[in-house]
Amino acid sequence: MSTTLKTIIVEDEKTSREILSNYLVKYCPNVQIVGEAENIEEALVLIRNNELDLVFLDVEMPYGNAFDLLDSVGDVSFETVFVTAYNQYAMEALNQHAAYYLLKPISIDELIKAVDFVTEIKEKESQFSNEVLTPKINISNKKISLPTQTGFELIDTESILYCQADDNYTHFFLKGDQKRLVSKTLGFFEKQLSEHGFFRIHKSYLINLNHIQSYQKGKGGTVVVDNGKSLPVASSKKATFLRLFK
User: Fold this and answer.
1) By percentage, how much of the chain surpasses pLDDT 70?
2) 26, 43, 136, 212: which could form a disulfide with 10 (CB 3.0–4.6 Å)?
3) Are residues 69 and 177 in the same domain?
């Protein structure tokens, strides 16, 4: 299934907006049109209020042009397909890093090519982002990268007291009463951290062995970590856990 492209159409001519919108609905099912604008001011509102993947942008508009709009936006995170009746803008469009350039009247085949091209760009970006944001250990400095809403954060593994399972999420409990929540299972982090001084004492807990204060006997027993928290040891894990301290 193709990546969904959240899109707006910026075009001052109503008929042209309707034609492009109809073409997209009929021939480009992965495009989701979230709004239309007939001038720069309306376009800026839509751009600032939506996380867009693609903007179809008419070059000539009242009180400015497409390049004025892009200058006003500043840091552009979306791909741009310029639409115009004048091919004299082609070079400037390329200089503005437009993903594609469509001449009016719009060719359906060219429109499909433009959408496919942007879809491929976004899929590659997503794949790269997923690779970068996958939590991983940097052995040289003993840090683990944890994805955040805006990127990733590097955490010193020594600062991790323990990790707790929460369905498909994992809570990280750190020194200084700090916490992090990551959208990965505890099993994932067990594989990442088991060779770096961590042990899965229970289906719900992965602990840093360097932060154990004490062990208390019981069927499985419990461990107390540096923040004073008592964590259960599963009976099936008890023997293996105790052997680590022989």
Assistant:
1) 89
2) 43
3) no
Split into its structural domains, the chain has a count of: 2
For residues 157 and 86, state if they share a domain. Answer: no
Say what the pTM is. 0.56
Mean pLDDT for 19-48 is 94
* Same domain (yes/no): 171, 68: no
Q: Which domain holds residue 211?
A: 138-243
Q: Across residues 160-187, what is the average pLDDT?
A: 92
How many Å apart are CA 41 and CA 35, to the nearest integer? 13
The H-or-E segment that residue 234 falls in is none
Residue 185 exposed, middle or buried by CB count within 10 Å (0-12, 13-18, 19+): middle
Predicted pLDDT at 1: 56
Q: Is 22 exposed, middle or buried (0-12, 13-18, 19+ CB in 10 A)?
A: exposed
Q: Of the candidates 132, 166, 200, which is a domain's last residue? A: 132
